[in-house]
Amino acid sequence: MTEKSFKGRVVLLTAGPTHEPIDPVRFIGNHSTGKMGYALAERFAQLGADVILVSGPTNLHTQHTGIRVKDVTTADEMYKAVLKYAETADIWVFAAAVADYRPKVVADKKIKKAGQELTIELVKNVDIAAALGKQKKEWQFSVGFALETDNESANAKEKLSKKNLDMIVLNSLKDPGAGFAHDTNKITIIEQDATHTFELKKKSEVAQDIINLILERIDG
Amino acid sequence: MTEKSFKGRVVLLTAGPTHEPIDPVRFIGNHSTGKMGYALAERFAQLGADVILVSGPTNLHTQHTGIRVKDVTTADEMYKAVLKYAETADIWVFAAAVADYRPKVVADKKIKKAGQELTIELVKNVDIAAALGKQKKEWQFSVGFALETDNESANAKEKLSKKNLDMIVLNSLKDPGAGFAHDTNKITIIEQDATHTFELKKKSEVAQDIINLILERIDG
């Protein structure tokens, strides 16, 4: 692999959490920091890719000139940004932790505390990777991420086919030192006919492992 | 006012948001960054106070040796930490944006997306400032914060008496450049018989305004 293996290729990458507003003050969020997605974006860019990084709210910044950051807040905004750039991208990497549900109604004023109980009704967000899977062309390569707390491998395999993904990166919350907020991660990469397990590593090294496998597949 | 006006005094201060878990991955949060609370903590410490800073999840750090930081995540954890230190503190400053409600049930595994809709039942959290108000001694001084999106002043006055506060700092979401995420803030300080309005300023300067008024009252 040369240092410019992705030269001339466009990578569309999502990263971070989404925040789904309840009212102007409150939201439903998740513990994704975006570190894994940003590490991937940096590595792709170092290898010559033209990266479009659709990022949910994080505290991360990237200076790499090969990365164009599109900031979004909600799953719906992320979906629209992804739709805008998907067609021209050679590789899609869905590393964001997108909220599955959003509040059905968003209050335009801060909800006052009144009763002892309160019920929030949620409706499903679009499954971005699955929706994109339906429009994927033969020449496009799609990578999903899954975070599972039980029955990991079976769930990941199911997602692989349902979302028309070429590869899924599985994070398990069971591994100490892996996942949210950590600078290390322990992943399993699942393909239709193969499973690759890796040791606990720095996220920059994990990014390299993922990218190496993508490169083997698209150049193979 | 001398530079060590709070020497020998203990200040208990809350800052930041709280995160109320839905499951191991998701939570209900709010847009507080903790900047206002940390600015207050720094200023109190510079003026000689022994500061106990009970902080929700933020990206802020303080190096001041006069500040002891107690990290918490949920409103319940914040309440317990506050209870632990309240009795010995001369001044209480409730600058945190505490979640009013938490999910009734916290799932121990990530909730799988299934139906088109999902309902989350919430139950009320303890109102920390109000609960502490009931045990406040004559010599203790209590400062609350309120963020309102409408009918600000009337709501703030009501909180003042209900929570047995000496002073309430009102942030309005209506002021551009004020409130969440900004480095500036525009406040109104409400006392039982007086209202003080201030211009838009840096949060460090706002902290100074608040502290000046506290000092007038406790030394007055």
Write the layout of secondary structure elements.
Two copies of one chain form a homodimer.
Chain A: E1 10-15, E2 20-21, E3 26-30, H1 35-46, E4 50-55, E5 67-71, H2 75-86, E6 91-94, E7 101-103, E8 117-124, H3 128-133, E9 141-148, H4 152-162, E10 167-172, E11 184-185, E12 187-191, E13 194-197, E14 201-202, H5 203-219
Parallel strand pairs in A: 1-4, 1-6, 4-5, 6-9, 9-10
Antiparallel strand pairs in A: 2-3, 7-8, 10-12, 11-14, 12-13
Describe the overall structure.
- 2 copies of one chain form a homodimer.
- By secondary structure, the first copy, chain A, is α/β, with parallel strands linked by helices.
- The first copy, chain A, has a single domain (10-219), classed as CoaB-like (Rossmann fold), CATH 3.40.50.
- Chain A is 26% helix and 30% strand.
- The first copy, chain A, has helices at 35-46, 75-86, 128-133, 152-162, 203-219; strands spanning 10-15, 20-21, 26-30, 50-55, 67-71, 91-94, 101-103, 117-124, 141-148, 167-172, 184-185, 187-191, 194-197, 201-202.
- In chain A, strands 5-4-1-6-9-10-12-13 form an 8-stranded mixed β-sheet, sandwiched between helices. In chain A, strands 2-3 form a two-stranded antiparallel ribbon. In chain A, strands 7-8 form a two-stranded antiparallel sheet.
- In chain A, helix 4 (152-162) links the parallel strand 9 and strand 10 (167-172).
- Chain A starts with 9 loop residues before the first strand and ends with a helix.
- The mean pLDDT of chain A is 91.
- At the A-B interface, strand 3 and strand 8 of A face strand 3 and strand 8 of B.
